[in-house]
Each structure stands twice: as C-alpha cells, then as structure tokens.
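Hi R.,

As promised, here are both runs. First protein below:
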Amino acid sequence: MNGIEPINLQEGIRSRLVQGVNGLTMHILEAGYSDPSRPCVLLLHGFPELAYSWRGVMKGLAEQGYHVVAPDQRGYGRTSNSTTEYGSDLRPFYRLNLVRDALALVYAIGRKSVCAVVGHDFGSPVAAYCALVRPDVFRSVALMSAPFDGPPPISETDEVDMAAGLAGLSPPKKHYQHYNCTPDANAEMLEPETGLSGFLRTYFHVKSADWASNKPFVLNGWTPDELARMPSYYIMGMDDSMPEAIRHHAPTRSEIDACRWLTQNDLEVYVEEFGRTGFQGGLNWYRCSFLPDHQNELRLFAGRTIDVPSCFIGGANDWGVYQSPGALERMQRSACTDMRLVELVDGAGHWVQQEKTCEVVQLLITFLKG
C-alpha cells in the first residue's frame, strides 16, 4: 500500500483505500463486506487512535450480519491528502467538515445511508453532528466515552477563563486540551524520553481500567477547583508535557504481560502509524475547539436536537464520561430526544471498545436490533 507495510488484521477484516472522499484518499478497514445487502455501520475513532481501534467490534458486528466500515479519520493513519502541519489552515478540521468526510465516505462506498454511526472519544461529537445534521443518512447514533450535550447556544455567553483559573491554582495547572493546542505537543509526545512505544503504552494504560486509581465521580461544576480533582492526564502540571504528566503511572512488566486488550503486537500498530505520521493531525482537532469562528459555525444548529435513535456507552472507570460536568445529564435530558440506552461497562476505562469488546458488541447489537 504505497510502500507502507500492510496491517496484520484478523481474518474477515480487510484494508483498502477509497478515493475522492471530500478531497481525501481515505484508508478504511472493512468487515462483512461480501454481501452488499447487509445494513452498514460506520465507526469513528478518537485520539490517539485509528480505524484499528475497532478491530474486535468490527468482527463481532460482522458476525451478527452487518457491513462494518471504520476509517482512519482526517489527519490520522493511512488517510492522505490532508495537510497536518501546525501552521496549516485549520478549517478542514472543523467539525462540520469532518461530518462531510463521513458523508462522502458513505457515498463513496456505494451507500445512501447507514443504519448507525458510532463514535468514540473525539469521534463521538463527530458522530453526534452526523446524526444532528443528516438524520436521513445517519439513521441512528451510538456515542462512546464522550457525552454530547448539544450545539453551542446562539447567543454567546461569558465563558470562564479556565486556562487562567487553572494557572491560578497552587500548584498551577493546565487542561490537557489546552496543552494539545500548543506547538510543542506533537514533538513532545512523538519523541519523549521513554520513547514513543513507552509513551503510548503508558497513555493507554493510565486511561484504562487497568490503572487502579481510575475511580471517577460526578464533578460539582465547571470550576478550576473541581476540574483539578481529575487525574494528571486531564489536568496537568503547568510545566509538564503529557509524557511527563503520566510517566509515574507507567505499567509494570506484570501489568503489561497481563494486558489482553492491547497486546504488544497491537501496540506496535499504533507505534508504527504515529511514528510515521506524528500526532499533529489529531491535535488539530483540539485546536479547532477553541476557535470562535468554529464555534460560530456550530451555532447554526443551536437548539437542534438529535432525534434519531441514540445510545451512550462508556466505561465505569472512565473519567471521560464526567470531564465536562453536567454533559451526561444534558445529553439524556435535552440533546437527544430518543435515547434508548445508557450503559457504563464494568471493568472498562476510556478505551471501552478495546477493553471490553464483547460487552460493547452485545450492547450495540441490543441497540441496533431495537
């Protein structure tokens, strides 16, 4: 594949390139593709992940009769023709353009609609806007790990200067999303003292249920003091890089050997891909979140709700469910009008679809089959 080594995939999953996807050549993994009459499910990954993150879910859904498609999203993996440098134009990474990517992919594989779009982590808000903007194409939506509480309101409100508030704590702190917007974040994660493999192993470990200190709880509000109660991979030391913020929580040799959901071979896929591309493509998604122009674009949908069938799946040990205080409740109360299932999976952290694949597949089947 253009001189890149093929990914070692399970039997029944194939890798291919799809041309002409909103200006991209999009790399996808695909399962259950032999029968074009099968209902189609589109899976959207988050950061720092890939289409490969859905490997177990793909196989499970295909065995239940679905055609399953998972792309490397814009700026990630083997998807190409996207400029990802720090100084490049960020408009291609705006949320609605990521929806265009998903829509164009649906059409490029010969479909007019999919029975469900499923998004994890940063893929969750993309999936949410897919269902919000084009319910005729994305007929249902499953959100994972990141609750969606609706588009920003039409009238701009006085927002808390969280960066200043966290910086004023003793000791001073910073939010990981602010860190991800800095020009040094890519290099610091790509070339840490522990090496890329060591960083990724620790990052996946510390946000999973394997790290015993992940015992999340509901925060009382969007204030610096409350946010500072979260672990260091969310609220970091002011002078820390992400590798420095998590290095003291690196897994032991026995913990690595006991990890069945992320084998050394699995980890090497991420190391190989991010070692080749860097992280800046994914980091550009975070940078858009703080741009007034991007927020104004989303305000076009102020007050609009997700009205197709929806569900939410998270890990019981995942701080991501609670990092935006009140979002989980607003999602159920107002943002989604046909929420059919909300489930926090025991024994799973942030990487729920990898940590507890069988449970996630069963929940998705329950949701999809109604």
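And here is the second one, sequence first, then its structure tokens:
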Amino acid sequence: MKRNITLLLLAVFSLMTIKSQNNKNIMEMESLELTPEWDKTFPRSNKVKHKKVTFTNRYGITLAADMYSPENAVGSLPAIAVCGPFGAVKEQCSGLYAQEMAERGFITLAFDPSFTGESGGQPRYMTSPDINTEDFSAAVDFLVTHPSVNPEAVGVIGICGWGGLAINAAASDPRIKATVASTMYDMSRVSANGYFDSADTAEDRDKLRTALAAQRTEDFRNGTPKLGGGVPDVLPEDAPKFLRDYFDYYKTSRGYHPRSLNSNGGRNATSPIPWINFPLMSRAAEIKNAVMIIHGEKAHSFYFGSDAYKKLTVNPGQDNNKLFMAIPRASHTDLYDRKDIIPFDALAGFFNEYLKF
C-alpha cells in the first residue's frame, strides 16, 4: 500500500514537473523586435487587414509573420501560409503573394523562416532542411488553431527555394490540403549537384565537403560564422542572365530590403552542409493532397519544377489534383513580383477547388 502511494506521488510529481517545464518554455519564448511601420517592397492594399503575429515552431524558435485577411471577412475562412524566396524576407515576395491572396478571400500568413528577418533562432542566417520544413508546419499550427480559420482548409505557397520546402512539408504534414510551388528550386539538388547537375559526381561533392569542412574549422577559430555573400553589389561583365535578373530584383528599389539576406551579406557560408545529403523530393510521390507547380518557361530554374512535377502521382479514383503551369516567356524572378505575370487568379481557383469546406 505504501509503495503504491509512493508511485502515485512520483507520477503526480512528474506530471507537475512536465507542466512546469512546459509553462517555463512558454514563458521563455523569444522576445522579438517587430517593425511597427509598413516597410514592404510593395504598396499596402486597402482591401485587406494586416497585423503582425508570432508563433513558435517545434524547436522552440519564435517566428514573426504578417497576417492578412479580407477587409470584410466573416466566419471561418480558408487560409494559406506563404514563405520564400530562399534568402528573402516576408516584406518581399511572400508578403506580396499573401496580400494578393487575401484580396481574393483567403486569410494568409507570410512568415520569416527561422534564423532570418524578424524571426528568432541562433546563429543568425543559418538554414536547415529539417527546421525550415518544420517552419511551414508551425505556420499551419498557428492557422489551424486560429478562430477565423477553417482548420480543414489550410494550404501553403512556397516561392523559389521555399517551393521545394513546401512540397517537402506537404509530404510530411497531411493538414496541408493544397500546395503551390512557384518558380521553385530544389535546394538539396542544387547544393549537391550544382546548377543543371553540372557537378553531380562523388569527386565534385568531396571537394565541396572539404571546402565546407575547412570553413567550419575557420568559423570555430574565429568564434563567428562567415557569411557566404548575397547577390553581388557589382555585376561582373560576363554575369549570366539569371544573375542579372537577381540583381535587378534584390539590389534595386524594385525588391531591396535591409533584412533580406540576398540583398545584403547572404547566408552563413557553411549553410550548404545539410542540404548536400538531404533528398528533399524523396517523398513527393506520396503526397495525396493537391499540388500545383508554376514556373516561367524561360526561367533558368525551370528544370527544378518540371522534374518535381514528374515525381508527383495522381491518386487512384480521384481527379488529377497534381498540376503544372508554365508561364510563357517568364523568367525566374518575373514570378517574384510581376503582378501582370503571376497567375494569382489561377492560384485562387486552385485553392478554392481544394480548400473546399
């Protein structure tokens, strides 16, 4: 009898400790500095409401986001989480996409990923295929528990490198009912193989790993990570067109933002390390919910989107819920902010179809 009482008391104490630790974790949520003024690269719409929000991911990192909702929204609405491009911030492309989709009737959440922008996480300017995929699911956590959102009608949009992460998130999180990957990169493929798979040999990867390992040693000696550099401030004369396109967006008034990594010093130089061995598209064929990939037919990155689409499968007995849309004459960065080119109405039609409730 005494032993049973002791075990019961230990169990109660353990539960109290867990609850105390959980409360402690909540209380120790990172305090973020959120800019109060409108500092986006696009004008504010008078058709939507906007506010800053925060939420935490599964690793305890606090993420900052802009939440957009239709001006006269009533009831519980379908919602979309938006992120990207890789190295950008929510004040750039993802915020534009979010605002445009809010004008079309959706609650949207444009967020800064871990280690970036106004979001938390240390060290700064790091990337992780696992944590960044988790960032999407954390945004879904926020949306499915929000009183204005229908929890059965949540989708995601990933732009550029976040297009591949959106597909990876959809493969792991069935709460994501519809996914759009816009002008996507497969960051694991380009990190491991180089552009157009031009360095897809074990020898090439060994050289890359050796250089990254040496940089790790140097970073440890210096006590701080070296930045890899964003888009260059001055273009070389022989710069390829896609680099000129990036410059035209990230380094001019069109898209420059002081918190954007691509506009400034870039990510940590060792950021490619985890992506080299991470097969980002490995479970894409297992996604049952709807996926739409859009890509400019003139984009240097077109092969990422077209090859990702080939990995998707149509579920037996269902309509074709895997779609590919090629945008005539569009480049990679045209789908960042060219409102006359980005097919927002087609995106709205896709989400209305697959976020029905």
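A quick note on the second one: The CA atoms of residues 238 and 244 lie 10 Å apart. Let me know what you think.

Best,
J.
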